[in-house]
Amino acid sequence: MYSKYPDERGRFGAFGGKFVPETLMAALNQLESDYRKYRVDPQFQAELQYLLKEYSGRETPLYFAERLTSYLGGAKIYLKREDLNHTGAHKINNTLGQGLLAKYTGKKRVIAETGAGQHGVATATVSALLGLECKVFMGEEDIARQELNVFRMRMLGAEVIPATSGTRTLKDATNEAIRHWVEHVEDTFYIIGSVVGPHPYPMIVRDFQRIIGDEVRKQMIEKEGRLPDTIIACVGGGSNAIGIFYPFLEDESVRLIGVEASGEGVDTDRHAATITKGRPGVIHGSLTMLLQDEYGQVLPAHSISAGLDYPGIGPEHAFLASSGRATYVPISDEEALEAFALLTKLEGIIPALESAHAVAQAMKMAPSLPKDHLMVINLSGRGDKDVQSILKYQGGRVQ
Fold it and tell me: Does the reported pTM lie above 0.90?
C-alpha cells in the first residue's frame, strides 16, 4: 500500500501537497509533466545510468563492519557506503537526475539550497559537468561551519549566496532560494536537495535516491541470502533515509528506523527533532511535521550537524511515522560525536556527522540483538567537511 503514494494531489496520506504562490503552480505542474515523461524515456535513463556508474562510481559497497560488530557484540552490522560516491555523499544521485532534467527541458541555469554543503557541492559539480550556470543559497551560519565545502563550490564555478535572515541556516537558505525561483521561474531549474518542498519534488528526489535501497536489497541477498532485519538512516529533510527505506516499504519484516537530531536534548529548545516534538504545519510548500510555537511560527532548529539542522521533515517520512511503518528516534550531539569517534577508530571510516547519528542509534540497539540479526546503517556521507567544526567544538582535542 505504501508504494502507491503520492496520490494525484501529491499527498502522502494527510501530508505533502502544493502550498505555494500562484506564480509557481504552472512551473510545478510543468515539472511534474516533464518528470513523468523523462523517467520512462530510454535515452534519459541510459544517460543517467551511465553517469551514475561511470561518473559517480556506483554501485557503492555494502560493507560488513566486522570490528564494529565485534565491539558491540550483537547484531551483524553492514554499512551502505554512500560516502564513496563522487563528491562524498548520496546527494550526487539526485543532482545527476535533476541536472539531466534541467538539460532535457532546455534550462541553462540552476539554483539550489544547502545546509552542510554536500548538496551544494553536488549541484555545483553537476552544473560544471553539464555546462549549467549555478547559484547556491546557503545560510551565513552554515557558511562559517562548512568553509571547505563553500570553497569547493566556488572552485567548481558556482556562486554561493549567503542567507542572512533568521537563524542563517538551511531553513533561511531555502526561503531565499524559493524567493529567487519565483522571480526567475521561466529560465531557472530549482534543484531541491531533499525530499521536501511542494509536489512533485518529494517524489522526484525519492525516486532518484531509491537506487540506495535497490542496491542494498540485491547486495544483502547476495551476501546473506535474505533481506536485512533492520535499516537505520539519519533524517534531516530525509533524502538518504527515504532512498534506502523506499524499496523495503512493503516488506513488513524489515524494521525501518529514522534518526533525527536531538541536539542538546528534546527537553531543551536546542534540537531538530521534528517528529518527536513537532506538529503538522506548512513549510516550504508542503504540509509536514514541523517545529512551531503556539501561534504556528516556525521555531529555530539546532544540531551540531548542519545537514540535520532543519525544522521540518519530508512529508513521506511524516506519513510513515503516522502510519507506524517507520520509527523515528532522537540522538543528541554528544551521542553523535561518540559514534563519530568510535567508527573512525574501529573501522578507519570518518563518517559525516549526519551519518554518525545513525551509527549512534546502532550502538544503542545492536548489543541487545541476536548475532544473526542483520542490521544496515546508511553511511550517507563522509566526514572530511566536519573535521574542522568538531575540532572547534572539542577545543582542539582528539577524542
Answer: yes
